Amino acid sequence: MEYLKAFLCGGILCVIGQVLIDKTPLTPAKILVSYVTAGVVLSGVGVYQYLVDWGGAGATVPLTGFGHLLAKGVKKAVAEDGLLGALTGGSAAAAGGITAAIFFGFLVALICKPKPKS
After folding, report:
1. CA 18 to chain centre
2. 3-class secondary-structure state, position 63
3. Which of 96, 72, 97, 95 is closest to 85 using CA atoms?
4. Are 66 and 97 within 8 A, CB to CB?
5. Domain spans of the chain?
6. What angle do the packed helices 2-23 and 48-55 form, to 10 degrees?
7. Can you say whether residue 46 is alpha, beta or left, with left for phi > 0 and alpha for psi between -120 and 50 degrees?
């Protein structure tokens, strides 16, 4: 049942993104930023954690999950370090994912031959 919930949750988030791409003049970059911002805002007001509890990886893997991770990191760092934690908490919480993205992006760039868009 966990797999089905994750599939449904992630699928719904992807469908919303696809509808935004197809039916609005928003660029993909604006939609990506909106997803991360929505994750931060929903986590800040305490709603996103319920979605994570229900949807598991379907809620934590998409970009809204990245925003949720940033918000959780900031909240934890502020509780531990005070106001300075608002500046450092998000990057500290997401450091592992950011490092993996940079490493694997570099690895793929070494292996694959880039081509210009035509």
Report:
1. 16
2. helix
3. 72
4. yes
5. 2-111
6. 130
7. left
Residues 95 and 112: their CA atoms lie apart, in Å, by: 26
Cα 73 to chain centroid, rounded: 13
Interval 29-81: pLDDT, tens: 999 999 999 999 999 999 999 999 999 999 988 889 999 999 999 999 999 98
Report which of 78, 41, 53, 49 is spatially closest to residue 2, judged by C-alpha positions: 53
Q: Which amino acid type is present at position 46?
A: G
For residues 55 and 39, the answer to whether their CB atoms sit within 8 Å is: no
Q: For residues 107 and 105, what is the distance between their CA atoms, to the nearest angstrom?
A: 5
Structure tokens at 98: 């950011």
Q: Which amino acid is at 82?
A: G
